TrEMBL record, chains A, B, C, D, E, F:
CDD domains: RraA_family. It comes from the Bacteria. This is Ribonuclease activity regulator RraA. Its cofactor is Mg(2+). GO terms for molecular function: metal ion binding. Residues 220-242 are annotated as: Disordered. Substrate binds at residues 109-112, 131. The keyword Endoplasmic reticulum does not apply.
């Protein structure tokens, strides 16, 4: 008996496009306004690249600890395997894998990543690690993870299913939650809050760009960031004048 | 899409009775003979008692990290809640809860434990902690856990379902696997291996009782434990003479 | 430049007396209603006793890591030393020591604890450990800590001051915040929230006592805990009938 | 090529007897006077008893991580096994086992402990855990460890030798170093420093007994502990008057 | 009541210049000669650059754990805020922030770093992490930290003050202690020891440069490093001949 | 009394050459076929380079925790020192150092690495860290480690010997075991299994190269990886046709 996603809100392409202009840092600040402090996935950092931001709905994978009679290369022939999970991934999804933070076994290598690229998966995010670093980088799949290990997943992990609620890096992820990942890591937005985060976040980015200009000019921080009433007016004036 | 239990082998009451004579230490040694090194649940230790051994099939609970809009006291009204899970527990089962090793929020307190006693649940095992220590001990429910914390589960955990495969203390647990717990902690036996573990384990216990007598008499360890051919013969003779 | 306590609200003796009837578990649940999830001090557990509840205002101590030229037995002669801090403690206060979770050096031994008893300090709480277990227990001072170590504080810690804001076990403590400690550990209540927690908490304890009776009678959990409208009415009726 | 013990100083029985009057806390303070801050073995705590102090020379055991083809029950038949090591232990020694802090496999169970008792081994100290808690307590061997686990050592550890330099709980132990263990844990004294620690330590214990009396009388701490010149004179007078 | 800096020794510009020729590795070795083993700040590593060495006096910041009612974006308006602290930083100082090793919330982002550059702060050092990696690197402020996280400080930390004694990465830092940071991390020199470390350190660097030449020529290590009497003479001769 | 290497099997140069074509990832998979799950050394990652694979026999070093009277710069003059160990290293060996995972003291700096290059040591692998990052990279010695720290080994470690069995990153290493290290880290092959791993591993690499081609063409994963009977036939046909 498993909980289903707590929201099935429709999210427009325009909202997702707007969200692509919002940094993960700003996303966490907008979520804090709603009382949510657990959205950033500890350990999931860019794997060998910089300067990318990816946005999309979560497709979850779940691992439990190794059981030696089940976690074997032979298990990859079973209907419930990472292979079948990949074939179920829709175009544009972001695969989020709960590896329980295990760093001694790589969940995926080059062959699986290459297949995900073929299926147009947007990115792979995990609180665990990858294996076959050179090969994975070669596929071009954007990956956020803790690093790399030589052993395969079956050395320490048993794959048990997909599109269930999971934990990843200390945050709860439900299928179809919206994921944003960039140089500061990966964050999850509960589906119901995506409209709020996208619009408030875009406004926040605008204000920060004005703040940067002010600090560049030599303004002092107190009263400016966050702005007091006078500075709020100056900011509004600047916005109109753009 | 979730993996179901890999075995539905029938286990007789006689086998379970035999297993009640086998220590958790011996269970792990028997499983090692089958190549299984991950069966003991780290962190799950007897909570305020000593000298009990409990055996029964696993009923699993699963938590993921807190999501502040979902993990609230109000969530306990939902159909997927720890309350509903308890009402689904069959008599004699052992409840095994995956709390991801979190030690800052107690998964259950006295009221839920009292209801589990009413439902004749045999024991509760978790890699997390309890709350309301005094009250929980008062219910008499045998609990294996890491200790106690004042905050409720919703402070750090979101409950997401029951009778799925879980991890607990670094071991994989499938529903209806057989659990054995005593003063040395709690172990899981994959359902297919229960017959083997019960019978080989009981024999192993017998041999250890003979070894203890021999060491008491002053015998040296090399050649005795494990026994060489001569000592194997002496043991067999002793067995017949009992 | 240090932040002072964010509240200097007056708290009546009656409120503190009411708070003595509220468990630490209930305190954390009341604080959660106000959005506060960090109040329980991880690692601070009863040291060799059970069944006590202590309530009082915080008097804080602060340690930083060892600096070998400063953290020496000679440092105990300085005006800023743990000795002077103890002489500054008011009757009835609860001493809360930020030991940064260090478990390899005991912050206090029997002589300092004995002096705290003479000064009528109500309790000592730390995320570190004690030394001289036998002697400390002998003084009768109620202590919440992680355990015991033989080395003195100067082996790993430098004492730097008292009655500053500190961290203890992952929670922020300001001087004169109200501390509650019992078998489930120790929690801090921001001074502004003490009235709310005491009154709502006492009502919550009453309802839990009714719930226990209902479960004892065999009631099912869903609808009862938390109570639906019907059960709320039954509870109100019971309250009036007492 | 292994380092041998850096000292072979002779230690009289009288010195060891004097050391039996010195707490582990005082031992660490005396060692600090000689610049030694790493002597207490983290994790090695009394296993199911209180009020004992044991003193004796170290006999070391060394484990490395499991290698599945070597760490098997069959390995116990090898000449380099824990069994052979026990037969090599001299009467009165304290066995100190480097288990690398591993808490998922018990290094010894009841049969090996019983044999150590027969060989008049004074105590067993480890930064790991035991197995078969009930049986081990039954042998009466004083054990300092981190707790208990059901699996045997071969589940996670490979035994590789005895009487080599080891690490235990973050301290370096050389064979024949002197070990002191009591309620505050276990400490190692480099052989060259034993005379100093025993004599200075006994004097320190005496002064602490006087301090306790003074605090009992209501004396303030500053100037008393540590004593200023006036209090040093009072202490000396007290000593003479005994 | 807080301890003030234990030294106010004057340090000449010439000494600081000499110190700029000394590696952090050599600084730790010179401090070890004075019995100081805790000077390197664990976790504070160069953030996106290589080949820099920065020297200057410490300006400290202190955080405690989050308290949800205090750690909010609104708190940045308070007089005791990170904003005010930055305005108090003198030119040439090195800001050292005690983030308690927290890696889930970035203490500063691009706007605050930009203001620090405007104020001619020499560097920022923390045992925590930054946020807004791209923007921070763009400011050119040299930062030593554990990495990056998307959430702001208020997600996990409460700022409580500046220029107090702090811990950072396991070392104690007092205001105006001298900090040296390079590719091997960041170290603190107690103010009283700066003259010693600068002069002995510079000599040590010279000897190491000679050693490198000798090893390049094929000399064996024993007797050379550290040098025996013969090699000491050879080194002295080389020094004179330069 | 120390265990000697469990195998002295002769390994041909041809086998080592074949092994140079096998990734560390494949090595761990081949070892898993033999029941060995502990071969990858956690923490030992390439230090400032990419794209290298090194193969050779292990020469082990062993450290225990610091003992302040022994772990001093003066200790480097002793016959049992890291200096003497380096002079004992044979050409082509891979030095594997058990630093107990300590990250606060660098085991070696530039001078020792330079000498190892002169002695034609193939690589240095440790679960600890290096010091003098710039200098070490300058020597060109391939190093796998956890990173860098300024303090020297004597700050936290005591060197006790060489060519004994050790633990490194959670794996057991015996002298002359064969080590393979590349971008995915470092693994150990028990000497008896080298022939098997080299030959089976090379075949496995070939099959993976075919799999990559198939996935590139758009093949689905189930049935392909691992291959079912039909795909096994296709693979065999491809092998013949090369």
């Amino acid at each position: 008996m498993t909980m289903t996603s707590p929201s099935t809100a429709t999210i427009s392409a325009a909202t997702l496009d707007l969200l692509r202009t919002v940094t993960t840092g700003t996303v966490t600040t907008m979520l804090l306004k709603k009382g949510i402090r657990h959205a950033w996935m500890k350990g999931a950092m860019p794997f060998g690249f910089t300067g990318k931001r990816i946005v999309g709905p979560a497709f979850t994978l779940r691992f439990v600890p190794v059981r030696e009679d089940l976690a074997t290369p032979a298990s990859w022939l079973n209907p419930i395997s990472t292979r079948s999970a990949i074939e179920a991934m829709p175009e544009g999804c972001i695969c989020v894998a709960d590896a329980m933070g295990v760093t001694g076994a790589g969940i995926f290598g080059d062959i699986l990543c290459m297949r995900m690229v073929k299926r147009k998966v947007a990115a792979l995010i995990t609180d665990g690690v990858m294996r076959d670093k050179h090969g994975v980088l070669g596929t071009g799949l954007p990956v956020w993870c803790q690093g790399v290990a030589a052993p395969a997943s079956v050395n320490m992990l048993t794959f048990v299913g997909w599109n269930e609620p999971i934990g990843c890096g200390g945050s709860a992820i439900f299928p179809d939650d919206i994921i944003v990942a960039d140089d500061d890591g990966a964050v999850v937005i509960p589906r119901d809050l995506v409209e709020f985060v996208a619009h408030e976040g875009a406004e926040h980015e605008l204000m920060e760009s004005w703040l940067v200009q002010e600090v560049e000019k030599g303004e002092r921080l107190p009263g400016l960031y966050p702005p007091n009433d006078e500075n709020k007016k100056r900011y509004e004036a600047w916005k109109k004048s753009r």
